[in-house]
């Protein structure tokens, strides 16, 4: 995939399995920005047990010595760690792993500045089971689907960036599924923008 900023177009590289010792990891490269993210856990934690029966999420962002003028853990990197925590906390079901922790480490290999976007990207999938259409189906529902449709789009611009279709669809049904996806993406985009605004306006410690 290719992203464009004001100066030029550059290739985005996304790879999983970057750190073998982790539970999950990925490498991302956007122009001159290169980051490795690794996830460890859920794993038992006495500290988590002291707080609540829900799981605990820890996020840490650090820079290599050659990544940028930033060195080590500074107030700036602590703020970025907090931003990463807020971004992920709402997506993880912490109650699903009580009294344990999940640790997310982001290592910035090279910092090329902000990445300019035309818009945020939202994604929604729909399964067709008989005459019914189900938005964002669970695994059990997917196992009985006759077809699947996934759309990623830029909600504010109302532009589809990717569409994947599997199975057999009638023209009427696929049009209905596409509209369901686009409507859901629009609602999701509003939630994403709201979260970003709240994070940006939150008082800094």
Automatic annotation (TrEMBL):
It comes from the Eukaryota. Belongs to the RNase PH family. Pfam families: RNase_PH. Signal peptide: none annotated. It comes from Salvia splendens (Scarlet sage). This is Exoribonuclease phosphorolytic domain-containing protein. It is found in: Cytoplasm; Nucleus. GO terms for cellular component: cytoplasmic exosome (RNase complex); nuclear exosome (RNase complex); nucleolus. Residues 14-123 form the Exoribonuclease phosphorolytic domain. GO terms for molecular function: RNA binding. GO terms for biological process: nuclear mRNA surveillance; poly(A)-dependent snoRNA 3'-end processing; rRNA catabolic process; rRNA processing; U4 snRNA 3'-end processing. The lineage of its organism: Eukaryota, Viridiplantae, Streptophyta, Embryophyta, Tracheophyta. Keywords: Cytoplasm, Exosome, Nucleus, RNA-binding, rRNA processing.
């Amino acid at each position: 995939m290719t992203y464009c900023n004001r100066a030029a177009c550059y290739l985005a590289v996304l790879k999983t399995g970057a750190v073998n010792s982790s539970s999950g990891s990925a490498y991302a490269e956007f122009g001159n920005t290169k980051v490795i993210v690794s996830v460890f856990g859920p794993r038992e934690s006495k500290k988590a047990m002291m707080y609540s029966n829900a799981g605990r999420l820890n996020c840490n962002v650090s820079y290599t010595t050659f990544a940028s003028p930033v060195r080590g853990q500074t107030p700036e990197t602590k703020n970025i760690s907090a931003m990463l925590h807020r971004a992920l906390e709402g997506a993880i079901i912490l109650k699903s792993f009580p009294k344990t922790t999940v640790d997310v480490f982001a290592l910035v290999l090279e910092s090329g500045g902000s990445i300019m976007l035309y818009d945020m990207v939202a994604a929604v999938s729909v399964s067709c089971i008989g005459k019914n259409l189900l938005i964002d189906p669970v695994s059990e529902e997917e196992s009985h689907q006759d077809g699947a449709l996934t759309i990623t789009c830029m909600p504010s611009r109302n532009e589809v960036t990717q569409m994947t279709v599997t199975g057999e669809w009638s023209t009427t049904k696929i049009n209905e599924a596409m509209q369901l996806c686009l409507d859901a993406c629009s609602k999701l985009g509003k939630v994403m923008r709201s979260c970003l605004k709240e994070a940006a306006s939150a008082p800094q410690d």
